[in-house]
Design brief:
This protein has about 500 residues and is of the alpha/beta class. It contains 18 helices and 16 strands.
Length: about 500
């Protein structure tokens, strides 16, 4: 374009802007929310800035246009993939550009801005950016308990959460779960609280909030602090209070599989000024996140976006996944599962001793305005799943809530014959996956902390995750419902029962 190198007020730039405004558009102006929520005017102002500097935002805007075109194609294709990264590829590109231009760690004020925004969103006094959510769990435990104290938590979580407890000087004590939500059972917690309990970790798994009223009542009566692992529930509310700010400390995740994606990253919120300062002081001794892990994660994210792109997924990726699922899903488990080789750690890995970079903070800030709208879309999908599957006797469903307390990062169902159902869905052209989390109370690496948790053991063998990401589409949700119903129709497993709430 003639105005690319021209001055802000040049005739060439004015002509280019006029051509942009007048250019015929095959897509409606409202199409852009399918990308990341920008309007055409927003894209124009980003593409034609005042000084014509080449920066990440311009590339992000260009990818927005690509995403609009991709969506217009994708709505006619089926199946859609089991998962797509939020904010990709825009965030990957912007972080990569910051790496290449030396801006990865510049403007630390952007980290402070993010911390302020997170604190404001959660009505907490203090917010703190983190390189990883699990580091927040480690820091919270380390500065809340005395060495050797018990930390009560659910065994149905990633194994590294258990490691963070151990590395911080705590002794993990497993409390069994409520199968309906896959979350820690308050009744189990009540039976484990004693004089040596230093903290309770409550995990809002799959975006389903724990029973915080019962848990806060229990812990307040025993003067035990609560750490909310809200890694999968950012943006949720419980009885009008922001998830993460109900306990003494809240931890959020901004990793690639979350509803806000900064490749790695997280945040911590608290109202405890003394605790906050202790954690700030320790974080100050860490270096910013290395470029190596960020680069590898960005490449992984871009490859994931490519393999799940319209046409590529339906023509290449899905046939491979379909064949794999029919044969036990070993390839997908090997490539995608984060729980492949659980190992005990007694000291915090050096690679975790990092700080959030400014580039990651900017990536998070760009996505914050989409959190509420994306959550409402996921809730709408959850309602379709709930209404369509509620009469299936052999399918355990999560409670249906539309008040924001359940954000449904995925829609977890529990089925007694998981592999048989997955193979049936693959044959019917549906792409869904099993939950790879296990019952960590049964893991050999944590055998010294072993405890009988039968609900967690059974649940770990039954959960199937149905897609809910915003661009998935209502028609795809209904196709999943129809395919699942088809599996059980021949088994006479359909009986009337009320909608679960």
């Amino acid at each position: 374009m003639a105005g690319w190198h021209a001055g802000a007020n040049s005739p060439e730039r004015a002509a280019d802007c006029a051509r942009w405004r007048a250019a015929p558009r095959r897509l409606p102006a409202s199409a852009s929310p399918w990308a990341i929520g920008r309007s055409w005017a927003d894209l124009e102002s980003t593409l034609f800035d005042s000084d014509w500097k080449i920066h990440a935002d311009r590339l992000v805007a260009a990818y927005d246009i690509v995403e609009i075109a991709k969506h217009s194609i994708a709505v006619h294709l089926s199946p859609q993939p089991r998962f797509r990264f939020y904010g990709s590829p825009q965030n990957c590109i912007s972080i990569l550009v910051d790496m290449l231009t030396g801006n990865l760690r510049r403007a630390e004020s952007d980290v402070r801005s993010l911390e302020t925004r997170i604190a404001e969103r959660t009505a907490a006094k203090h917010g703190l950016g983190l390189p990883r959510a699990r580091l927040g769990i480690y820091l919270a435990i380390k500065h809340l308990i005395q060495p050797g104290q018990n930390v009560i938590l659910s065994p149905y979580t990633i194994h590294d959460v258990i490691n963070m407890v151990i590395c911080a000087g705590g002794r993990p004590v497993f409390a069994d779960i409520d199968p309906a939500t896959c979350n820690i059972d308050p009744a189990q917690v009540a039976g484990l609280l004693d004089g040596n309990t230093g903290a309770v970790i409550v995990t809002h798994l799959h975006g389903l909030s724990c029973d915080m009223r019962a848990l806060t009542t229990l812990c307040s009566a025993n003067r035990v602090p609560i750490i909310e692992d809200a890694a999968q529930c950012f943006g949720g509310r419980y009885e009008s209070r922001p998830i993460g700010a109900i306990g003494d400390v809240g931890i959020f995740s901004f990793s690639v599989k979350k509803n806000v994606n900064a490749l790695f990253g997280g945040a911590l919120v608290t109202n405890d000024g003394v605790l906050y300062q202790r954690i700030v002081d320790e974080l100050a001794s860490f270096e910013p996140e290395d470029t190596g892990p960020l680069l590898r994660q960005a490449v992984k994210c871009l490859l994931g976006d490519l393999t799940t792109a319209p046409l590529v997924f339906q023509g290449l990726t899905f046939p491979v996944l379909q064949y794999d699922t029919k044969n036990g899903g070993r390839l997908a488990n090997r490539l995608m599962s984060s729980e492949k080789a659980p190992t005990l750690h007694t000291a915090l890995p050096e690679s975790y001793k990092r700080r959030l970079t400014a580039a990651q903070a900017r990536a998070v800030i760009r996505q914050l305005d989409r959190v509420e709208a994306d959550m409402q879309t996921r809730i709408a999908y959850a309602r379709i799943y709930q209404e369509g599957l509620s009469d299936l006797l052999d399918v355990g469903l999560p409670p249906m809530r539309e008040d924001g307390s359940h954000t449904y990062l995925d829609f977890p169902i529990r089925v007694p014959e998981r592999q048989a159902l997955l193979k049936h869905l693959a044959r019917k052209g549906r792409d869904v996956r099993e939950q790879w989390y296990t019952n960590t109370a049964d893991l050999q690496c944590f055998s010294q902390y072993a405890r009988e948790c039968p609900n967690a053991r059974t649940t770990a063998q039954q959960v199937v995750l149905l897609p809910t990401y915003p661009s998935y589409g209502e028609s795809e949700v209904r196709k999943n419902v129809a395919a699942i119903r088809g599996y059980y129709r021949s088994r006479d497993a359909v009986v009337p029962r009320p909608l679960q709430r």
